[in-house]
UniProtKB/TrEMBL annotation, chain A:
PANTHER family: NA(+)/H(+) ANTIPORTER SUBUNIT (PTHR43373), NA(+)_H(+) ANTIPORTER SUBUNIT A (PTHR43373:SF1)
GO terms (BP aspect): monoatomic ion transport
Entry keywords, A to Z: Antiport, Cell membrane, Ion transport, Membrane, Transmembrane, Transmembrane helix, Transport
Provenance organism: Sediminihabitans luteus
Compartments in which it is found: Cell membrane; Membrane
Keyword NAD applies: no
Keyword Transmembrane assigned: yes
Name of the featured protein: Multisubunit sodium/proton antiporter MrpA subunit /multisubunit sodium/proton antiporter MrpB subunit
Domain NADH-Ubiquinone oxidoreductase (complex I) chain 5 N-terminal intervals: 63-108
TrEMBL record, chain B:
GO cellular component: plasma membrane
Membrane topology: Multi-pass membrane protein
Source species of the chain: Sediminihabitans luteus
Principal location: membrane
Family note: Belongs to the CPA3 antiporters (TC 2.A.63) subunit C family.
Entry protein name: Multisubunit sodium/proton antiporter MrpC subunit
Region (Disordered): 139-180
Ranges of Acidic residues composition bias in the record: 142-156
InterPro entries with a match to the protein in the record: CPA3_antiporter_subunitC, NUOK/Mnh_C1-like
């Protein structure tokens, strides 16, 4: 069975290519997939009849008990025959049905084949969750097929409606399936059914399953999606919406009825929905003018009937239901395919316009006639056999008398309606309606002008609309039957085969009984039924005659019935109710959005913070024993630093000058570094100091572009609200700080870190080893965040590219006018300082400002505006830059054993670059780091994450450290740990981050200012 | 209320978890001032608030790791005297990430200044539009699934398949499905 699924999958994937290659003939190849399912089922018939059901199990997701379990029992066998047989015929039909120039055929072919595959999976799945997976797959493929003509509003709407309803039902069903699986302790369908659990939960689950079945099989009140789904191409209607997919609900009911049909709730739902659907569908089929809609409402009705039979719980009814299932698949698919032929041949499906089609298309008319006879239960067709068996079993019901009588009469009335719409269908499609033709001829002339003339057509078209709107045959323009051409055998063949099979199957009723009987026997109640052509004279025969008489009467008085329905139809139609509900849902969504999405950042943040206070805050305090165990300080110096931090923070909130606020926050940050140091965290202290330095400098770089003072604060009232939220959050966090450490009940995992770090990580600095080895994956994630942040900064400032060109001194030489970085505002002394630069002839004879008599301290010092230069700064920069780099490298390589590491080293290099930039401007930065920061970021991330794979090659886990001890002559023993490369990656990435920040927020802003500031 | 470290910790955690009040105070002040600024409209203030909250969160992590101790370096400090290295590793990356985010918000503030001449966060206009629509109960867009206009019969008469060229009758006029 798995092989069948794989075959379908391969076919579906190959379908687009096949259609490109073979065009419409590709459908012949694709038909092989469902045909193989049909042949497979047929070949296994003897085993199925013997009760030796083939099974197949492949473990899929063991952790949630999900298995690819398949089982071919009698019900699955029947469904597989239907799905495979009808599927193959429909695909063959497609090859002639669509025009050569039809659009979207490639997608269509693939989706239809995939649908057939999911249907095969659905009916053979023996696992509750697997069943659900295939169930939803059919929903999705059905959606794609209904919406095949996506450019049409009707198609889109029908597809959306179908998927919303069937998915809602599917999810409901999933809840039921899970309850069932949990209560039964197994997800194997066959086990659940064989030994059904009981209890309230299981009853609820059973009803939920029925809801799923009701949406899929278009039972009231969800039936309206099926007629709307007729927007799909006709072969799809024939396959999905008559033979296969809508039978999934029937299948589900039949599958679980043996286990749950004795539940009163089950019975009530099945009788109410099944019976109601039978009547509503039949009644509404009588007023439709579109042939597909007649059939669609007929299908709704028939589905109600089948669900009623297979869900009722008696063996006789179940046997009749299964027979009906097979019969319905044959006759309804045949009828839809016939409609397709008529539609293709005449250009319309309106039964008021069709006339004389039967004479021109005798074979199609014959096939449709055979199928119609089967549908209305005329002997000796399959439909008749099934209906007789149903009548027989309903007459001998097992429930309370009034209930049996109700069900019986609902069945009889439903059958009367079936006869009436069946007759109406065949008459509408194929009969010659002499009376109307002459009247219509006169109209035909008017109409053709209405359509052929582009101008002045409004009035005539309106006339025609009015005519169409009036119920009655005479006002509608009929077709001209003489222009109908004979369809190809490929079109007529499939419906003919299906119709004839409906006759053949009925001629051997005992075979059907032999095959299907064992499954019906698994039902809990009632006598076993029989399939037979003549069951003797009794109540069923009388009822059959009543049915035909009633149906004939209704057909004879069809004009009256239509007028009655048109005038009496006041009950809101289900699809209107659905549309209004969707509209309300939209309104509700808008209201909720308007209420929650205020568009105000402070509002959102306030809401989030209040949730933090109320939610985790209360949860945290509820776990508190009431004892408060704190000490004043770890070390007395802590208190002094804390006071500094607090004062700085409070002053920062009160500052009105941006620069002042930034400096105060910097002070608080340095205070934090001191606290880290006092706590025994030198790595943190070092990193904090470096970060604080970079942050301060960067903030100052940006703030020079912003107004020096903050704008006036908003209303004082909101100020106290904000202060209140701030205090609440602060107090909550203080409570956390007190409660959380004491709530610890397990030994900290980090107690073992020192030993592990030394033994496995090969380093003495536990924090560093934790970063690059023990928790290296975390670090990979965190440096990825840095990469994203750096890219974000660059893309916000460099608008058109990842980053600008690297501005170097040699590019300046080519400029006609040398740049004057930071030339404004100029001060009085600028003229004096200008003397520092003496123009001398360059090597190419031109005057160059960058060449000075003495060797420059900084390479790009000539690009700086003279008033911005500071010789002392330049000299100091010259002196410290290389020392800083060397020290950074020392930190990097020694970080494994003493404070330092990639983060600190990278930041230090960043600061060195910052110093160069501040001393010499952006060209100096370009000289100091003539490299694209993106390259550094990428290389860093690659080194960090990529080197982890080395350990994989060495047979370890990803990111595991490998320690290599080498003896190198002259240098001595080298102790190399591969995590050093990880740290180098971190180093490069951090350098890239700082460089990116400097180049964006420093150099690029400078350039934009020089360019006039109006760069957007 | 403030008792010494002598209160026994029932489970043996390996190291004392009693928090230091000084750090708790710093956490409270940093969070209060940080949140107060975070709720402002000026991006620079929001950013400063964010940095303060970040510092507070780092201290909170530090406190959660237990008492102060020696630097967690093997050979320099005895293992039982070390401060918790795990929280330090977490804080270290948090510090650097704060730098990245700070730069990002600064870039946004700069961009906002470039575009609007100030760095204040304005209310979202689209959200206001939705609120106005909700107040009027008007449809947000023309939703075909919710409109009430057509019936199944109307729609069925407009829908036809791309069928093969069988009859030439009056099929052509319906071919596009949209003209009727």
């Amino acid at each position: 069975m798995l092989l069948l699924l794989v075959a379908h999958l391969l076919m579906a994937v190959a379908a687009p290519a096949l259609v490109s290659w073979l065009h419409r003939r590709a459908f012949w190849v694709l038909a092989l997939a469902p045909a193989s399912a049909f042949v497979y089922a047929l070949a296994l018939t003897p085993r199925v009849m013997d009760g030796d059901f083939p099974e197949q199990t492949v473990s899929w997701v063991p952790s949630i008990g999900l298995e690819l379990a398949f089982r071919l029992d009698t019900l699955a066998w029947l469904m597989l025959l239907v799905v495979g047989g009808v599927g193959a015929l429909v695909l063959v039909y497609c090859s002639a049905y669509f025009s050569r120039s039809a659009t979207g055929l490639r997608r269509f072919a693939g989706v239809l084949t995939a649908f057939a595959g999911s249907m095969v999976g659905l009916v053979t799945a023996d696992d509750l969750l697997l069943l659900f997976v295939f169930w939803e797959l059919t929903t999705v493929f059905s959606y794609l097929l209904i919406g095949h003509y996506a450019e049409r509003k009707a198609g889109r709407r029908a597809a959306m409606q179908a998927i919303v309803i069937t998915t809602a039902g599917g999810l409901t069903m999933l809840v039921g399936l899970v309850i069932l699986g949990v209560s039964a302790g197994t997800y194997r369908v066959s086990d659940v059914v064989a030994d059904p659990p009981s209890g309230t939960a299981v009853t609820v689950a059973a009803v939920l399953l029925l809801v799923g079945a009701a949406t899929k099989s278009a039972l009231i009140p969800f039936h309206f999606w099926l007629p709307a789904a007729m927007a799909a191409p006709t072969p799809v209607s024939a396959y999905l919406h008559a033979a296969a997919m809508v039978k999934a609900g029937v299948y589900l009911v039949a599958r679980f009825a043996p286990a749950f049909s004795d539940l009163p709730e089950w019975k009530a739902v099945v009788i109410a929905l099944g019976g109601g659907t039978l009547l509503v569908g039949g009644y509404r089929a009588l007023r439709q003018h579109d042939l597909k809609l007649v059939l669609a409402f007929g299908t709704v009705s028939q589905l109600g009937l089948i669900i009623l039979l297979v869900g009722l719980g008696t063996r006789g009814a179940a046997l009749a239901g299964l027979a009906m299932l097979g019969a319905h698949a044959m006759f309804k698919a045949a009828l839809f395919l016939s409609v397709g032929i008529v539609d293709a041949a005449t250009g319309t499906r309106d039964l008021r316009r069709l006339t004389g089609v039967g004479r021109r298309l005798p074979f199609t008319a014959t096939a449709a006639a055979l199928a119609t006879l089967s549908m209305i239960g005329f002997p000796p067709f399959a439909g008749y056999v099934a209906k007789e068996a149903a009548l027989e079993s309903l007459v001998h019901g097992t429930g309370p008398g009034w209930l049996d009588a109700t069900v019986l009469w609902v069945f009889v009335v439903g059958s009367v309606l079936t006869v009436a719409y069946g007759a109406r269908f065949w008459w509408g499609a194929f009969a010659t309606k002499h009376a109307e033709v002459s009247v219509a001829r006169a109209n035909a002339h008017v109409d053709s002008t209405a359509f052929d003339l582009p101008a002045g057509t409004q009035t005539t078209r309106r006339t025609r609309r009015n005519a169409l709107a009036t119920v009655g045959d005479a006002e509608v323009e009929p077709i001209d039957p003489r222009r109908i051409e004979r369809p190809s055998f490929l079109l007529v063949g499939p419906p003919m085969i299906l119709a004839v099979m409906g006759l053949l199957a009925a001629l051997l009723p005992h075979v059907g009984e032999q095959v299907l009987g064992p499954y019906a026997a698994t039902y809990p109640a009632g006598e076993e039924g029989h399939l037979t052509l003549w069951g003797g004279f009794g109540p069923p025969v009388v009822l059959t005659l009543v049915v035909f008489a009633g149906g004939a009467l209704l057909f004879w008085q069809r004009g009256w019935v239509e007028r009655f329905q048109a005038s009496a139809w006041d009950v809101p139609e289900a699809d209107r109710v659905y549309r209004r509900t969707m509209r309300r849902l939209d309104d509700l969504a808008a209201d909720v959005t308007a209420w929650t999405q205020r568009g105000s950042l402070p509002f959102y943040l306030g809401a989030i913070l209040l949730v933090l206070v109320v939610g985790p805050g209360i949860a945290g305090l509820s776990g508190w024993s009431g004892e408060l165990t704190v000490k004043a300080w770890d070390r007395p110096a802590q208190l002094a630093v804390v006071l500094v931090v607090c004062i700085a923070a409070i002053l920062a909130t009160r500052a009105r000058r941006r620069l002042k606020a930034v400096l105060l926050v910097g002070a608080a940050g340095y205070g934090n570094a001191a606290l880290f140091l006092l706590h025994g965290a030198p790595d943190l202290a070092m990193t904090q100091v470096l970060v604080e330095t970079v942050t301060l400098a960067v903030m100052v770089l940006v703030l020079r572009r912003l107004p020096p003072y903050f704008s006036d604060r908003p209303l004082v009232g909101s100020r106290f609200v904000r202060l209140g939220i701030g205090l609440a959050v602060g107090l909550t966090m203080m409570a956390f700080a007190v409660v959380a450490p004491l709530a610890r009940i397990a030994r900290p995992i980090s107690l073992d870190f020192p030993a592990e770090a030394y033994e496995f990580g090969g380093g003495k600095n536990v924090v560093n080893v934790t970063l690059v080895d023990v928790r290296a994956w975390d670090t990979v994630g965190e440096i990825s965040v840095l990469l994203v942040a750096a890219t974000g900064v660059a893309s916000l400032v460099f608008l058109s590219r990842r980053s600008g060109e690297i501005e170097r001194v040699r590019s300046v030489r080519a400029m006609p006018e040398p740049p004057q970085v930071w030339s404004e505002p100029s001060d009085g002394g600028s003229a004096l300082r200008r003397r520092a630069v003496r123009p001398v002839p360059g090597p190419d004879g031109r005057t160059s400002a960058t060449t000075t008599a003495v060797r420059p301290w900084l390479r790009a010092e000539g690009t700086l505006a003279p008033q911005r230069r500071s010789v002392i700064f330049e000299v100091v920069t010259r002196l410290v830059f290389h020392s800083m780099i060397v020290f950074a490298l020392y930190l990097l390589f020694s970080g494994h054993n003493s404070p330092g590491g990639g983060f600190a080293a990278g930041l230090l290099v960043g600061i060195a670059l910052l110093v160069r930039y501040l001393a010499g401007g952006r060209y100096e930065l370009g000289e100091a780091a003539p490299i694209n920061p993106g390259l550094l970021l990428g290389t860093g991330l690659f080194l960090s994450a990529g080197v982890g794979l080395i350990a994989l090659l060495a047979g370890g886990e990803v990111l595991q450290s490998v320690i290599v001890d080498l003896h190198v002559p002259l240098l001595g023993d080298i102790h190399l740990v591969t995590s050093l490369f990880f740290d180098v990656g971190v180093f490069l990435l951090v350098v890239g981050l700082v460089l990116d920040i400097l180049r964006s927020l420093g150099a690029e802003i400078d350039r934009q200012v020089e360019a006039g500031g109006e760069v957007l | 209320m403030i008792s010494a470290e002598s209160v026994p910790n029932p489970p043996d955690l390996g190291l004392s978890m009693v928090p230091s009040l000084a750090l708790v105070l710093a956490i409270g002040v940093l969070f209060t001032t940080g949140v107060y600024l975070l709720l402002e409209r000026s991006l620079t203030r929001v950013l400063i608030g964010f940095v303060l909250v970040g510092n507070g969160a780092n201290l909170l992590l530090l406190v959660a790791g237990g008492r102060a101790g020696g630097a967690p370096i093997v050979g320099l400090t005895a293992t039982e005297r070390m401060s918790d290295p795990l929280v330090q590793a977490m804080i270290l990356t948090a510090i650097v990430i704060t730098l990245g985010i700070t730069a990002f918000v600064l870039a946004m503030a700069y961009r906002s200044w470039q575009l609007h001449g100030h760095d204040e966060v304005q209310d979202d206009l689209e959200d206001r539009r939705i609120a106005r629509i909700a107040a009027e109960n008007a449809p947000v867009y023309d939703d075909t699934d919710a409109s009430d206009a057509s019936t199944l019969d109307d729609e069925a008469s407009t829908v036809r398949d791309d069928t093969s060229e069988l009859g030439s009758g009056d099929r052509r006029r319906h071919d596009d499905g949209g003209r009727a």
